[in-house]
Amino acid sequence: MSARRKRKRGGSGRQKTAAAKAVAPKPAAPKPESVPADRERRVLLAFAGAVALATLVFFGSFVVDRDAMLFGTDMVSEAYQSRAFAVHEVQAGRGLPEWNPHLYGGMPFLSILPYPVWYPTSLLYFVMPLHRAIGWAFLLHFALAGILMYGLARELKLGPGPAMVAGAAYMFTGYLVSHLYAGQDGRMFAMQWTPALFLLAERAITRRRLHWFGWMAAVVVLQVFTPHVQMMYFAAMGVGAYVLFRLWQVQRADGEWKPALVLLGGFVAAYALAGLVALIEVWPTSNVVQFTHRAARDYTYGASWHMPPAETLAAIWPEFQGYLESYWGTNPFKLHTEYLGAVPVLLAALSLLARRSPRVWFFAALAAAGLLFAWATPFHRILWLVLPMMKSFRAPAMMYSVVALAVAVLAAYGAQTLLDRREALADGRHVAWKVLGGLGAFWVLAWFWVAGAPESFAAFWTSFLYDGVPPEKAAAVPLAMERFAKGLGLFALWWALGLGAAWLAVRGRVAPVVACAALAAITVVDLWRVDRAFYATLPAAQVTEPDATVRFLQGQPGPFRTFPLPDAYGPNDFLLWRIPSVTGSQKFRLAWWDDLVGEQGERLGDTRLWSLLDVRYVVSRSPIQMPELPAVQPGEKTVYAWSGPARPAWLVYRAASRPDGAAGWPAEMDPREIALLEPGVAAPPLGNAEPGSGTLRWLEREDPGRMALSVEAPADAILVLSEVWHPYWSATVDGAAVDVLQVNVALRGIPVPAGEHRVELEFSDPYLRYGAWGSGAGLVLLLGFLALTWRRRGAAPA
Prior knowledge:
Blueprint: H1 3-9, H2 13-23, H3 37-58, H4 60-64, E1 68-70, H5 73-91, E2 99-100, E3 107-108, H6 130-155, H7 160-171, H8 174-177, H9 179-182, H10 185-207, H11 211-224, H12 229-254, H13 258-277, H14 279-288, H15 299-303, H16 342-354, H17 358-374, H18 378-386, H19 400-420, H20 422-425, H21 431-452, H22 454-465, H23 476-506, H24 512-531, E4 537-539, H25 541-544, H26 548-554, E5 561-564, H27 573-576, H28 591-597, H29 607-613, E6 615-620, E7 631-633, E8 638-641, E9 649-652, E10 655-657, E11 675-677, E12 695-700, E13 706-713, E14 717-724, E15 729-733, E16 736-738, E17 741-743, E18 747-752, E19 755-763, H30 766-790
Parallel strand pairs: 5-6, 10-11
Antiparallel strand pairs: 1-4, 2-3, 6-8, 7-8, 9-14, 12-13, 13-19, 14-18, 15-16, 15-19, 17-18
């Protein structure tokens, strides 16, 4: 046979060898630590049981009291109300609402990431009381964090004992648990899934199976649906770095690039497929940004809410700068902690001092890079400039989630060192004992200082780390030092106990698994002491039951809007009772709304805007002295009725062009007599009639995304609605489509001819439909890929 025919039929022997090496099945990876399968199951079940017990104990008051609600600042003031609004609409048979008419005069709902709409645990909202469903979702993810970190440690070939230490360290790590206090379930859920990404990446690379990248895509979808996209993005940066590191190792081991490139393609494809499956959330939200002022941000915005480098001390000294009411650092406030725990820090240091394997160095470098990013150093600025989507993010301190994971993994490697390096560490002169013992002595000396002279300690460190404490926070320093004295003493105690357990393990005085169990137990007790400050419950009725003011407003004939002042209610409270308001708190305010009332609502004091926005009632705890605002419902929160002109809709017979670039309402114009059109928009034909003449009657307003009116106009007019405009609102007059004009800066205007007509409006975001079709196609692809590769998990990547 000729050489040409050989190449045609299958190529040369050298080509066949290279191709075979890239696609040939690899031998199954050895089971971590060669633990028998039955023992592995027993250990995992024991750990899972311990995790479940710890979860139930930690959340004990919530579990026992069915009327209790987990406290979270954002949850109580903002997030719960949005979820209740969606649940109400679904239970009313109208489905998930696309438009929310109750905040900021009206705004999109599903496209602004109001809550984990598409996340699986959100189904609980419809089968149990909402406050219980939210709380049980927190419990579930708290436990899953420990289980998934245990699984990651085992996948990294670490023993069951070290895996338990890692699981406990991550499950109770301060940065994960403290999100309870802020009620930021999206952050917690996204952070909880991060170990699964590393686990699946390691499994795919070790076993050379693209099948596991399919499961990685599923986990990424869950992270996107949390819906904390920023936390997902930062996790992707961390796991992406790990994949590149591991593929570099694969290339060095194989001596060729093809296997590594195939696996890299699998990783990229996993995220691309996840993006397709999550398109129902990603596409509408990406599109809505263009309608907000968030579309243009500078680096000052991107670096805001970074972690001050000095406050990295909170990883080991959580009470030093304080948190909650004792915080005196440079940020406006602090509702979380970065505390890692004494034993995880000790074991992480031990892994660097006594193990120093490539993976240990990688996770140490990952933690260091995460801190450089969180501090908003030039490293962060470079990534902010070059990476896609980064300009939409602020709060680089969230990268600390990756740091916490890296330290938990290093702690597991440190615990494994007690098993693998026993002979070397049995020598008390080993550098590890000198360094760790020296640090322990430093903690004790520092404790004597802060306990004996807290003012001196605070003065030294604040002058060393800061230019001085802001006057408004000076009162928090003594409280922080009081707590810090106790906290540092306990930190030194846990450090000593952990060091003692490690020493007994390497000397053979206790079994390694017993030492690891003791280290895990110390970790839980230590972290629990700090975590419990971020756990609280309150009676659900305190949030869900209307008070006398709300009941009064619910009894007034509508439609109308309210203006609750900040001292009276939370920004989204009235949404819970479906009372329309001109205030709110949401991620994406429409740009034209901000142009009308100001980005912080600073122009809402202009009563002419009350006429435009149909503001009938103002609610305040403090007395208001205005003749036009008589009190109509006295009490702790007084309701004042606006006696000026305010209607939900009216007819105008004059139009003018709004000055280009002008914000607010022009001082010389009467908002009831003219419609201001956007620059360059031609006015429709208008007749001549008295301002305010004509009759209007509401026919339909119950559905948030639909409304209908009966209009009788004496001449051609513009029907002005005190409803916020959006390009996805459509309108018909007697069934014929007409344009919905943007009038009066932010409102809707409908051209209507003279005579009696039926006007209907409907909101429909086309990108939700596009996203739904894309997600459906992506889900079919993902499920098909997993099904096709399930029985062929032994096949190598092609």
